[in-house]
Amino acid sequence: MLTPPPIWLEAGLWGLLGGSALVLGAALAYLARLPTRVTAGVMAFGCGVLVSAVAYDLLLDSFELASLWPIVVGAMAGSVAYTAANWLLARDARHRKRSGGQQRGPAEGGGLAIAVGSLLDGIPESVVLGVSLLDG
User: Each residue's pLDDT tens digit in the chain (136 positions)?
Assistant: First the structure.
């Protein structure tokens, strides 16, 4: 009868398997020239998976603590705030997001976009931290 491997070895092997995707992806990106649309699609998919995983993890706790309505109102308010900020920033900086040497002139609005993004990220994060501290 075989004895199972020590838990530290099993954890290390699972970590190695999970981390190998990063090394494999970096090697593929270095060796193969992928079209820009493929790269953008892979990045968008990865971002969507990450956001979905975080949101899914937080949604159950939120639903158990309150109900569905605070979740819906918060998601809609965040979506409207992000869309409005993106629209306002993109009005005068049409070529700000271009890559591969296609950007025309200096990247105007880049610093403002980073500041607004940090603000939009920081507000809900600060609220969550504050509520967590008050809750103990």
Answer: 788 888 888 888 988 998 898 888 888 888 988 888 988 898 899 888 888 887 777 788 888 888 889 888 988 898 899 889 888 887 766 655 566 665 555 555 567 778 888 888 888 888 878 877 887 6
Separation CA 11–CA 4 (nearest Å):
12
E strand map for 21-136: none
Distance CA 28, CA 8 (A): 30
3-state SS, 100-119, equals CCCCCCCCCCHHHHHHHHHH
Rounded to two decimals, the pTM is 0.51
- Report yes or no: 106 and 95 within 8 Å, Cβ to Cβ: no
Give the closest residue to 107 by CA, choosing from 120, 122, 89, 119: 89
Closest listed residue to residue 92, CA positions, set 78, 112, 73? 112
